[in-house]
């Protein structure tokens, strides 16, 4: 009777810490800026909304710099794109053009994911660390089984779908309806893509005989300690 070889085991942070880390990034890089824009638009008009949203992004960068914390790639990318959007929006005074511009950014992001994955240096791998604290051992494993390349193709397709949906909403709904539907549908699309990404991750790890070990009860305080690496290798 054959005995299955022991699995590779990679220690992970506590799930609550991972969820909290990802939620904070999404909150400050996406949800709150949209809320700031919508509130300012309702109270003071388009130009004020554009300026206040731009200030939000740069205030976030300044605060992180003053606290000597690592700069989030997602926030830096958002600040650059927001600067271009604000310039065009203030110059033209057109809400349509202001919201149409991210379509080009979305398509550019999708293209960057695809091109960097084909070049063997997936941009998605660098951005993933902004949202999830990935242990070094797991990063190495995912590099080896080309997870980031496969995930790049998946997220590139999502961004293309997002861009197409944004254009459709802009051309077929009012500004208020657009803001509401965009705020509701974008997270749903992103959530579905995350779910598929997790399924892909689990399938690749299972194929490679790798198991993720999560902290038990009482170990939540050690959630973000450096990973201990692979253990149980036989």
Automatic annotation (TrEMBL):
The answer to keyword Transmembrane applying to this record is yes
Which sequence ranges are marked TM in the entry? 35-59, 71-92, 98-119, 147-171, 177-201
Provide an example Pfam family for this protein. DUF3159
Q: Which residues form the signal peptide?
A: none
What superkingdom does the record give? Bacteria
What are the alphabetically sorted keywords of the record?
Membrane, Transmembrane, Transmembrane helix
**Protein known as:** DUF3159 domain-containing protein
Q: From what organism does this protein derive? A: Jatrophihabitans cynanchi
């Amino acid at each position: 009777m054959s005995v299955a070889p022991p699995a590779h085991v990679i220690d992970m942070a506590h799930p609550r810490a991972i969820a909290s880390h990802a939620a904070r990034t999404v909150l400050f890089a996406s949800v709150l800026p949209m809320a700031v824009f919508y509130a300012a638009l309702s109270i003071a008009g388009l130009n004020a909304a554009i300026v206040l949203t731009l200030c939000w992004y740069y205030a976030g960068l300044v605060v992180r710099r003053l606290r000597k914390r690592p700069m989030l790639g997602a926030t830096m990318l958002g600040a650059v794109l927001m600067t271009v959007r604000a310039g065009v929006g203030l110059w033209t005074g057109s809400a349509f053009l202001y919201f149409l511009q991210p379509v080009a950014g979305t398509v550019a992001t999708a293209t960057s994911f695809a091109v960097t994955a084909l070049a063997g240096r997936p941009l998605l791998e660098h951005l993933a660390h902004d949202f999830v604290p990935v242990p070094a051992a797991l990063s190495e494993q995912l590099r080896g089984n080309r997870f980031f390349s496969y995930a790049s193709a998946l997220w590139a397709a999502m961004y293309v779908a997002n861009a197409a949906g944004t254009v459709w909403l802009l051309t077929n709904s009012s500004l208020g309806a657009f803001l509401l539907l965009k705020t509701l549908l974008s997270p749903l699309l992103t959530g579905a893509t995350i779910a598929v990404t997790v399924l892909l991750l689990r399938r690749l790890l299972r194929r490679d005989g790798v198991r993720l070990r999560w902290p038990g009860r009482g170990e939540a305080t050690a959630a973000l300690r450096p990973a201990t690496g692979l253990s149980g290798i036989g």
